[in-house]
Task: inverse folding
C-alpha cells in the first residue's frame, strides 16, 4: 500500500559554495570582525503532507519556492533536518531525463544501463519494446547517442524513463517532448503512467495543467505551504488533452 | 564471432557471480534491507561493467590496452630496478608486476573515489540513487581493470621458474588489501567531496606513497631500519600478501598493523556512510 506522510518537515540547505571559504578570507574576516554566521537556507519550512493511494498532488509556486526540493526530499535525496517522513511503496523520481545517459554509448546500451539503474533486468524484448515506442529506425539502436538529434535523444530517454510503472511517481514539470506528433504519443504514455501510479506528485508552474491532472494543489512560497486547494472534479484526461491541442 | 561469444560468456558469469554474492549478503541482512542491498550491489556491478566496456569504445584492443601499459611498465622498471641489487632481475619480475597491479588498483580506486560523487551528481539528485553506490562503483570498476592487468604477472609467473607454493597463503592477505582499499575509497571519497581541499592532498600523497613504499623496490634493497618505511601502513598492506607469496610466512607485526588499520578504517567508513546521507548537499 503506497502512502506518503510528511509531518512538520523542515530542510535547512547548507550553502557550501555560496561564500568564500578560503583561509585568506577567513583570516581577514577575523581581523575586521565579520561575524561567522552559519550559512543555511530554510528550503522547506514546516511542511506536512499526507497522501493516500489515488492522490494526485500538484505543487505550485514561484521559482525557488521549494517545489523541486520537496520532491527530492520525498525521493530521499535530501535528509530532513527535522520532522517525520514515512514513505511506503517504491518511488520513481522523474526529475530530469538526462540523468545517467552517456552520449558515447550506443542507444541500446544506454537503455540497458538506465533500466539496470532503475532496478530492472533489461531483456532484448524490453529494449525492443522501448525502441518501438521511439519510432526511430531499427539500425539506430546500435548508434552512439551523440549522433542523435536532441529531439531523438529525448524520445529515447523519455521512452526508457517511462517504460515501467511505479507506486509513487514524482514529476518535476510535465515531461514534454517537443516534437510534433510524437508529443501527443508521449503525453498519452505519461498519462497511462500517471494512471497506473498510486500516488503522483507534480511540480509545475502551469496552473491549468495542475487543475486538469490533480486532486489537490499545494501552493508553496519560501518553502512554506501557503494554501492547499482541493479539487473535487475528477480529472478527465483524454478530453482535455484534445482540447489543449486544438 | 568467437570473441563476442567469449565476451558474452564472461559477462554472464560476472552477473551470476554478483547475483550469487548479493543474495548471500542479503540472506544475512534483515528483510527490509534485502531489496536495498541486493539492488544496490546489482546497480554497482552494472555501472562498473558498463564503465569497463565503454572505456575503450572503438579501440582495437579494448581494456587490454591496460595490460599492455602494465607490461611495458614492468619491462622498463624491471630492467632499471634490476641494476639496484645483485639479485636476478628476471626472478623479481612476477612480483614487481603483481605489486604494480595491486598499486594501480589502490591508486585508481582512491583517485576515482575523490571525484565519483560529483561526476554522478545527476543520478544522485534526479534519480535518488544512494551516493554510496558511486563509491563502491570505483572499487568494482578498478577490480575489473585489475583483472585485465593481472594477465601480465600471470604470464610472467608461468614463464619464469618462480614458486607458486605461496599463492594460497597469500589469499587472506590479498583479501585484507582489497577490503582496506574499499574502506579507503568510502572514507576519502566522502571527505574529498565534502572538503574540497582534501583532493589535492590525496593526489600528492598517492604519488609520494608510491615512491616511498616498497612497491617497485623491496625492503631488502634498502636499510631495513628506515623509520618511515616501518610506520608506512602501505608497507604492511603490501607485506601481508607479498611475504606469504614469496616466502610462505608472514611477520606478525605486519598482520597486526594491517588489522589495526582495518579496524580504524571500518569505523571511519561507518561514520562516512552515515554522513553520505547528506552527500546531495555537497555536490
Result:
Amino acid at each position: 500500500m503506497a502512502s506518503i506522510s510528511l509531518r512538520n518537515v523542515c530542510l535547512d540547505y547548507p550553502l557550501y559554495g555560496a561564500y568564500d571559504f578560503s583561509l585568506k578570507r577567513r583570516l581577514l574576516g577575523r581581523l575586521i570582525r565579520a561575524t561567522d554566521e552559519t550559512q543555511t537556507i530554510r528550503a522547506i519550512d514546516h511542511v506536512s503532507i499526507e497522501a493516500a493511494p489515488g492522490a494526485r498532488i500538484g505543487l505550485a509556486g514561484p521559482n525557488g519556492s521549494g517545489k523541486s526540493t520537496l520532491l527530492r526530499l520525498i525521493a530521499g535525496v535530501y535528509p530532513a533536518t527535522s520532522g517525520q517522513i514515512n514513505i511506503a511503496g517504491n518511488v520513481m523520481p522523474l526529475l530530469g531525463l538526462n540523468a545517467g545517459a552517456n552520449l558515447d554509448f550506443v542507444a541500446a546500451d544506454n537503455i540497458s544501463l538506465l533500466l539496470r539503474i532503475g532496478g530492472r533486468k533489461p531483456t532484448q524484448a524490453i529494449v525492443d519494446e522501448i525502441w518501438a515506442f521511439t519510432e526511430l529506425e531499427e539500425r539506430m539502436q546500435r548508434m552512439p547517442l551523440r549522433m542523435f538529434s536532441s529531439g531523438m535523444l529525448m524520445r529515447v530517454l523519455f521512452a526508457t524513463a517511462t517504460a515501467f510503472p511505479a507506486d509513487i511517481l514524482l514529476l518535476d514539470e510535465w515531461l514534454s517532448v517537443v516534437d510534433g506528433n510524437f508529443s501527443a504519443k508521449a503525453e498519452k504514455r505519461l498519462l497511462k503512467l500517471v494512471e497506473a501510479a498510486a500516488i503522483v506528485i507534480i511540480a509545475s508552474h502551469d496552473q491549468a495543467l495542475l487543475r486538469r491532472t490533480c486532486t489537490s494543489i499545494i501552493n508553496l512560497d519560501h518553502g512554506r505551504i501557503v494554501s492547499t486547494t482541493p479539487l473535487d472534479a475528477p480529472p478527465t484526461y483524454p478530453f482535455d488533452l484534445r482540447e489543449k491541442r486544438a | 564471432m568467437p570473441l563476442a561469444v567469449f565476451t558474452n560468456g564472461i559477462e554472464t558469469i560476472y552477473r551470476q557471480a554478483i547475483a550469487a554474492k548479493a543474495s548471500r549478503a542479503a540472506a544475512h541482512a534483515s528483510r527490509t534491507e534485502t531489496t536495498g542491498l541486493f539492488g544496490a550491489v546489482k546497480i554497482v556491478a552494472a555501472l562498473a561493467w558498463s564503465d569497463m566496456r565503454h572505456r575503450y569504445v572503438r579501440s582495437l584492443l579494448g581494456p587490454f590496452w591496460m595490460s599492455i601499459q602494465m607490461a611495458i611498465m614492468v619491462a622498463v622498471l624491471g630492467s632499471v630496478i634490476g641494476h639496484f641489487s645483485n639479485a636476478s632481475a628476471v626472478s623479481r619480475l612476477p612480483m614487481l608486476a603483481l605489486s604494480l597491479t595491486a598499486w594501480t588498483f589502490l591508486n585508481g580506486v582512491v583517485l576515482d573515489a575523490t571525484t565519483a560523487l560529483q561526476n554522478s551528481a545527476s543520478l544522485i539528485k534526479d534519480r535518488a540513487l544512494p551516493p554510496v553506490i558511486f563509491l563502491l562503483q570505483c572499487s568494482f570498476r578498478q577490480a575489473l581493470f585489475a583483472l585485465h592487468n593481472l594477465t601480465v604477472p600471470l604470464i610472467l609467473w608461468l614463464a619464469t621458474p618462480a614458486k607458486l607454493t605461496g599463492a594460497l597463503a597469500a589469499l587472506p592477505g590479498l583479501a585484507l588489501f582489497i577490503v582496506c582499499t574499499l574502506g579507503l575509497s568510502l572514507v576519502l571519497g566522502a571527505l574529498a567531496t565534502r572538503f574540497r581541499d582534501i583532493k589535492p592532498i590525496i593526489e600528492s600523497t598517492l604519488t609520494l606513497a608510491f615512491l616511498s613504499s616498497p612497491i617497485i623496490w623491496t625492503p631488502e634493497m634498502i636499510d631495513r631500519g628506515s623509520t618511515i618505511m616501518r610506520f608506512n601502513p602501505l608497507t604492511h598492506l603490501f607485506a601481508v600478501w607479498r611475504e606469504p607469496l614469496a616466502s610462505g610466512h608472514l611477520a606478525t607485526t605486519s598482520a597486526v598493523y594491517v588489522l589495526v588499520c582495518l579496524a580504524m578504517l571500518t569505523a571511519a567508513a561507518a561514520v562516512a556512510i552515515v554522513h553520505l546521507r547528506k552527500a546531495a548537499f555537497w555536490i
User: Anything to note?
Assistant: DSSP finds eight helices and nine strands in chain A.
